[in-house]
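Example record

One chain of 111 residues, shown exactly as stored in the release files.
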Amino acid sequence: MSTSAASNTNENAGVAFAIVLGAGAATAIGAAVVFFPSLVKLTSQRVLAASLGLSAGVMTYVSFVEIFAKSVSAFTDANHDENMAYIYSTLSFFGGVVLMKYSFCFLTIDR
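Predicted structure tokens for this chain:
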């Protein structure tokens, strides 16, 4: 690694650390709201439910994007061109969704 690349990485480390601290503080403040009944009374259940739904959606999206990029990379490393790697990754994802749906239907017990 060159000297300029190393110094650029060190400059960004402070900013990255500050962002991580900010995200951690926001999480702690958000969690603290739930533990204090007086603060919970100030919020509505609709807002809390929407916030939880939004955060779950964001986490699912981030996980999907990260896994999908690794899948495309793995297909590219297996000597497929980038377009076919993208298609195979997409088909694998939706194939997994269909497989999970059908396995859920077959494995559930009717009551």
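Notes: The chain has a mean pLDDT of 84.
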